[in-house]
Design goal:
The protein has one helix spanning about 85-95, and strands at about 20-25, 40-60, 65-80, 100-105, 115-125, 140-145, 150-155, 165, 170-175. With about 180 residues, it is mainly beta. A 6-stranded antiparallel barrel has the order 1-2-3-6-5-4. It has a two-stranded antiparallel ribbon with strand order 7-8.
């Protein structure tokens, strides 16, 4: 099956980095209870979603590579937030410690007013603090964990998406809204 990617002006982003929403969940991704709503932790200046899988090479007797297989997969969502109020800073440095979250990333709108939403089913936020004078943009780092069962993430009310389903054995889903 061939992949076709056409030019699409509607995919060009014209605004900043979007917003991040978090909801504390159980270790298996189940919401803690009611209200099971997302908390807005702020505007994103810049972000990176990194999805990397290590490869293990299998070689024959002549040391030629005959096949490869996937091994460890690491998914990180990191970047800089645009706000540095005391609630955000205290959450990033200690409020998120040893907890699990669903994370919803509402990306910036494109030229055609479309947006891309990314739902992460089970995550841990790395507690960290680093503020540079002048800009005061706190960094964030989120490790995305694999889910054993299918997870339905109900989108925050600000999203055009109603809900996103992350299949069992996966980490996240991306939708165009």
């Amino acid at each position: 099956m061939a992949t076709t990617i056409a030019r699409d002006k509607s995919a060009i982003k014209k605004y900043g980095g979007g917003k991040i929403y978090v909801m504390e969940v159980e270790e298996d991704g189940t919401p803690l209870g009611t209200p099971d709503t997302f908390t807005d932790i702020g505007y994103v200046q810049e972000s990176t979603i990194s999805d990397e899988t290590e490869k293990e090479e299998e070689r024959d007797e002549s040391n030629a590579v005959v096949s490869t297989s996937d091994t460890n997969r690491t998914i990180l969502f990191s970047g800089l937030l645009m706000q540095s109020d005391d609630e955000t800073l205290n959450f990033l440095r200690r409020g998120c410690r040893d907890k699990f979250y669903q994370v919803y990333y509402l990306s910036a709108e494109s030229i055609q007013s479309e947006q891309q939403d990314v739902a992460f089913g089970i995550c841990q936020i790395t507690p960290k603090m680093e503020l540079v004078s002048g800009t005061r943009r706190p960094p964030f780092e989120i490790t995305v964990l694999v889910n054993e069962a299918e997870i339905t993430v109900t989108a925050p009310t600000v999203s055009a998406s109603a809900s996103i389903v992350i299949p069992a054995g996966d980490y996240y889903e991306i939708v165009q809204a």
